Protein backbone atom coordinates (compact mmCIF):
# COMPACT_ATOMS: atom_id res chain seq x y z
CA UNK A 1 0.00 0.00 0.00
CA UNK A 2 1.45 3.35 -0.96
CA UNK A 3 1.49 6.22 1.55
CA UNK A 4 -0.80 8.13 -0.85
CA UNK A 5 -3.34 5.34 -0.89
CA UNK A 6 -3.21 5.16 2.90
CA UNK A 7 -3.69 8.91 3.27
CA UNK A 8 -6.97 8.59 1.40
CA UNK A 9 -8.11 5.57 3.33
CA UNK A 10 -7.18 6.80 6.81
CA UNK A 11 -9.92 9.41 7.49
CA UNK A 12 -12.90 7.17 6.54
CA UNK A 13 -11.27 4.24 8.34
CA UNK A 14 -10.84 6.25 11.53
CA UNK A 15 -14.43 7.50 11.26
CA UNK A 16 -15.66 3.95 10.91
CA UNK A 17 -13.58 2.87 13.93
CA UNK A 18 -14.89 5.66 16.13
CA UNK A 19 -18.52 5.07 15.04
CA UNK A 20 -18.15 1.34 15.71
CA UNK A 21 -16.72 1.94 19.19
CA UNK A 22 -19.48 4.43 19.98
CA UNK A 23 -22.17 2.03 18.77
CA UNK A 24 -20.87 -0.69 21.10
CA UNK A 25 -19.96 1.50 24.09
CA UNK A 26 -22.95 0.23 26.09
CA UNK A 27 -21.70 -3.36 25.78
CA UNK A 28 -18.08 -2.60 26.63
CA UNK A 29 -16.61 -3.90 29.89
CA UNK A 30 -13.23 -3.02 31.37
CA UNK A 31 -10.86 -5.98 31.10
CA UNK A 32 -10.02 -5.40 34.79
CA UNK A 33 -13.65 -6.19 35.67
CA UNK A 34 -13.42 -9.63 34.05
CA UNK A 35 -11.28 -10.84 36.99
CA UNK A 36 -8.72 -12.92 35.13
CA UNK A 37 -6.02 -14.11 37.49
CA UNK A 38 -2.90 -14.05 35.30
CA UNK A 39 -3.36 -10.94 33.13
CA UNK A 40 -2.43 -8.59 36.03
CA UNK A 41 0.98 -10.31 36.20
CA UNK A 42 1.80 -9.24 32.61
CA UNK A 43 -0.01 -5.94 32.10
CA UNK A 44 -0.23 -2.81 34.24
CA UNK A 45 -3.28 -2.01 36.33
CA UNK A 46 -3.83 1.08 34.18
CA UNK A 47 -3.87 -0.93 30.95
CA UNK A 48 -6.34 -3.47 32.33
CA UNK A 49 -8.56 -0.66 33.66
CA UNK A 50 -8.54 1.38 30.45
CA UNK A 51 -8.89 -1.50 27.97
CA UNK A 52 -12.41 -2.56 27.11
CA UNK A 53 -13.77 -5.80 25.75
CA UNK A 54 -17.00 -6.22 23.78
CA UNK A 55 -18.43 -9.73 23.37
CA UNK A 56 -20.11 -10.25 20.02
CA UNK A 57 -21.32 -12.95 17.65
CA UNK A 58 -19.57 -11.37 14.65
CA UNK A 59 -16.33 -9.46 14.99
CA UNK A 60 -16.87 -6.15 13.16
CA UNK A 61 -14.47 -5.19 10.40
CA UNK A 62 -14.31 -2.01 8.33
CA UNK A 63 -16.11 -2.14 4.97
CA UNK A 64 -12.84 -1.90 3.11
CA UNK A 65 -14.26 -2.99 -0.25
CA UNK A 66 -16.83 -0.21 -0.02
CA UNK A 67 -13.94 2.14 0.70
CA UNK A 68 -12.44 1.05 -2.60
CA UNK A 69 -10.02 -1.50 -1.22
CA UNK A 70 -11.00 -4.89 -2.58
CA UNK A 71 -7.78 -6.80 -1.98
CA UNK A 72 -8.48 -7.39 1.71
CA UNK A 73 -11.80 -9.11 1.13
CA UNK A 74 -10.66 -12.31 2.87
CA UNK A 75 -9.81 -10.36 6.01
CA UNK A 76 -13.05 -8.42 5.75
CA UNK A 77 -15.39 -11.40 5.43
CA UNK A 78 -13.47 -14.30 6.97
CA UNK A 79 -14.05 -15.81 10.39
CA UNK A 80 -12.11 -14.05 13.14
CA UNK A 81 -12.07 -14.74 16.89
CA UNK A 82 -11.16 -11.22 17.91
CA UNK A 83 -9.97 -7.82 16.77
CA UNK A 84 -8.64 -4.72 18.48
CA UNK A 85 -9.50 -1.11 17.68
CA UNK A 86 -7.63 1.49 19.72
CA UNK A 87 -8.26 0.64 23.41
CA UNK A 88 -11.14 -1.77 22.78
CA UNK A 89 -11.26 -5.30 21.52
CA UNK A 90 -14.13 -7.36 20.15
CA UNK A 91 -14.25 -11.04 20.96
CA UNK A 92 -16.61 -13.79 20.02
CA UNK A 93 -18.86 -14.76 22.92
CA UNK A 94 -17.41 -18.27 22.93
CA UNK A 95 -14.05 -16.83 24.05
CA UNK A 96 -15.37 -14.79 26.96
CA UNK A 97 -13.40 -16.91 29.46
CA UNK A 98 -10.33 -17.54 27.32
CA UNK A 99 -7.54 -15.66 29.08
CA UNK A 100 -4.95 -16.34 26.36
CA UNK A 101 -7.10 -14.64 23.70
CA UNK A 102 -7.56 -11.66 26.00
CA UNK A 103 -3.78 -11.62 26.37
CA UNK A 104 -3.36 -11.64 22.57
CA UNK A 105 -5.73 -8.71 22.07
CA UNK A 106 -4.06 -6.78 24.90
CA UNK A 107 -0.80 -7.05 22.96
CA UNK A 108 -2.59 -5.29 20.09
CA UNK A 109 -3.90 -2.61 22.47
CA UNK A 110 -0.30 -1.86 23.47
CA UNK A 111 0.75 -1.83 19.78
CA UNK A 112 -2.04 0.68 19.01
CA UNK A 113 -0.98 2.87 21.93
CA UNK A 114 2.74 2.85 21.15
CA UNK A 115 2.42 3.25 17.38
CA UNK A 116 -0.58 5.58 17.38
CA UNK A 117 -3.59 4.87 15.14
CA UNK A 118 -2.00 6.06 11.89
CA UNK A 119 1.19 4.03 12.20
CA UNK A 120 -0.65 1.01 13.57
CA UNK A 121 -3.12 0.93 10.68
CA UNK A 122 -0.47 1.58 8.04
CA UNK A 123 1.79 -1.17 9.43
CA UNK A 124 -1.12 -3.55 9.83
CA UNK A 125 -2.40 -2.99 6.29
CA UNK A 126 1.06 -3.42 4.82
CA UNK A 127 1.72 -6.55 6.85
CA UNK A 128 -1.59 -8.02 5.75
CA UNK A 129 -0.91 -7.22 2.15
CA UNK A 130 2.66 -8.49 2.06
CA UNK A 131 2.52 -11.53 4.34
CA UNK A 132 -1.14 -12.42 4.94
CA UNK A 133 -2.96 -12.28 8.28
CA UNK A 134 -1.08 -14.89 10.29
CA UNK A 135 2.42 -13.92 9.11
CA UNK A 136 1.96 -10.16 9.30
CA UNK A 137 4.52 -8.75 11.78
CA UNK A 138 2.03 -7.27 14.27
CA UNK A 139 0.17 -10.61 14.38
CA UNK A 140 3.36 -12.64 14.69
CA UNK A 141 4.28 -10.50 17.71
CA UNK A 142 0.86 -11.08 19.30
CA UNK A 143 0.81 -14.83 18.55
CA UNK A 144 4.38 -15.34 19.81
CA UNK A 145 3.62 -13.51 23.07
CA UNK A 146 0.33 -15.39 23.43
CA UNK A 147 2.18 -18.69 23.06
CA UNK A 148 4.70 -17.68 25.76
CA UNK A 149 1.77 -16.80 28.02
CA UNK A 150 -0.16 -19.99 27.30
CA UNK A 151 2.69 -22.49 27.47
CA UNK A 152 4.77 -21.21 30.38
CA UNK A 153 4.22 -19.75 33.82
CA UNK A 154 7.23 -17.47 33.42
CA UNK A 155 6.10 -13.94 34.13
CA UNK A 156 7.26 -11.12 31.86
CA UNK A 157 6.37 -7.50 31.29
CA UNK A 158 4.23 -7.78 28.17
CA UNK A 159 4.11 -4.01 27.60
CA UNK A 160 7.89 -3.74 27.71
CA UNK A 161 8.14 -6.70 25.33
CA UNK A 162 5.98 -4.91 22.76
CA UNK A 163 7.97 -1.68 23.19
CA UNK A 164 11.23 -3.55 22.60
CA UNK A 165 9.95 -5.43 19.56
CA UNK A 166 8.55 -2.27 17.98
CA UNK A 167 11.88 -0.54 18.47
CA UNK A 168 13.73 -3.13 16.35
ZN1 LIG B 1 -4.21 -10.60 16.52
Task: Describe what is shown at a glance.
With 168 residues, the protein is of the alpha+beta class.
The percentage of residues in β strands lies in 5-15%
- Which hetero ligands occur in this complex? zinc ion
**Termini, distance in Å?**
22 Å
Return Rg in Å.
Answer: 15 Å
Keyword list:
168 residues, globular, four-stranded mixed beta sheet, alpha+beta, 56% helix, binds zinc ion
Structure write-up:
The structure is a single chain. The chain is of the alpha+beta class and 168 residues long. The chain contains seven helices and four strands. It has a four-stranded mixed sheet. A hairpin with a 2-residue loop joins strand 3 (82-85) and strand 4. Helix 5 packs antiparallel against helix 6 (137-151) and helix 5 runs parallel beside helix 7 (158-167). It starts with a helix and ends with a helix.
Secondary structure layout plus pairing:
Blueprint: H1 3-23, E1 29-30, H2 39-42, H3 45-50, E2 52-56, H4 73-77, E3 82-85, E4 88-92, H5 99-131, H6 137-151, H7 158-167
Parallel strand pairs: 2-4
Antiparallel strand pairs: 1-2, 3-4
Bound molecules: zinc ion.
Zinc ion binds at residues 104, 108, 139, 142.
